[in-house]
Amino acid sequence: MVFSITKILIINLAFIGDVLLSTPVARALREKYPAAQIDMLVIPLTEPIASGNPYVDKVIVYDKRGKHKKIGELWKLIAAVRREKYDLAVCTNFASRGAILAWAAGIRKRAGYDAQHAGWFLTDTAPAKHTALRHEAENYLDVLKPLGISTGDTSLALTVRSQDAQSLREKIQRDWRKPLVLICPSGSYDKKSWLTEGYAALIESIVPLADCYLIGGKAEQAKLDAINARAGNQAVVLAGTLTLGELAALISVAELLITVDTGPMHIACAVGTPVAAFFGPTDPRIWGPRGDRDIIFQTAVDCFPCWGRKECSHHRCMRDIKQEEVIVAVSGMLNSIRHKEQKYENSHF
């Protein structure tokens, strides 16, 4: 049956990196259906990221762990989605929840993966198993293969909202013309982290060239403080200080983000900020930055990648990354960037 596609709902109920890495899906749909309304259903955490997707018209929030845990509120959400009369739903996650929601909302064409019984609720299914080693941004496009849709551009994209840039300026008082380097030393688990003494030495090498901010969530306060103390308290610590939108605004005006494999790394890639990334238990070929100015710090170990699932007594994948090599590489990046036009001149700042 052939019918026109004028309203599309992308469903992505995962986390920050996942929503950003699905950018090529939204781009491919926009290229195929330039006049269509393309909306996105996400969890509350990622709403600021989805709202900054330049290919998305409207964001709908599904609070699966809060408000919408109540069956009455969930049915209200489903009814609201049903009233939109979407022609196509694209479920980008392996979990079946998105497919069930699309089915319950009466969306007649529903594409997604044949994982976790989601296929029972879909009209067009893609294999959940990837057959080749590719970057995750490319993998996301597999969900569109049953529809015959793709794109040659798998880059990430994020537009910083003006209200987030404004609230960041109100919250952080600094001379925004000065160079800024951000360090995000913590990921979703400790095995992704580099050494405290390494970060401290890195900060000491950066502060003659730029302001240095340590960023993380509230749970990382003690770790960030310990790194800063080791560096003589020369950095500014932001632990849970910013909203996600404000964090994206901050990353967008930084000269450089030094980070482990985590959500802010993908934000930097999406806003065009150079990245120096530490990779140990995870694979940069799948999750790493891909920009011409980005660099990856990694050592060869025979247990790579373990994805943090194995017991580890040595943590060599991160411990063997040499402090001196990192400092030289980061200094080179900063010296190169300092000879270019300051980022703030072309930003909300």
Automatic annotation (TrEMBL):
Record-level GO cellular component terms: cytosol
Keyword Metal-binding belongs to the record: no
Record-linked Gene3D superfamilies: Glycogen Phosphorylase B (3.40.50.2000)
UniProt xrefs under Pfam families: Glyco_transf_9
GO molecular function: ADP-heptose-lipopolysaccharide heptosyltransferase activity
Domain of life: Bacteria
Catalytic activity entry: an L-alpha-D-Hep-(1->5)-[alpha-Kdo-(2->4)]-alpha-Kdo-(2->6)-lipid A + ADP-L-glycero-beta-D-manno-heptose = an L-alpha-D-Hep-(1->3)-L-alpha-D-Hep-(1->5)-[alpha-Kdo-(2->4)]-alpha-Kdo-(2->6)-lipid A + ADP + H(+)
Keyword presence, Glycosyltransferase: yes
Annotated signal peptide: none
Record-level GO BP terms: lipopolysaccharide core region biosynthetic process
Coiled coil stretches, renumbered: none
Enzyme class: transferase
SUPFAM superfamilies from the UniProt entry: UDP-Glycosyltransferase/glycogen phosphorylase (SSF53756)
Assigned keywords, A-Z: Glycosyltransferase, Transferase
The family this protein is said to belong to: Belongs to the glycosyltransferase 9 family.
Designated name of the protein: lipopolysaccharide heptosyltransferase II
Gene name tied to this protein: rfaQ_3
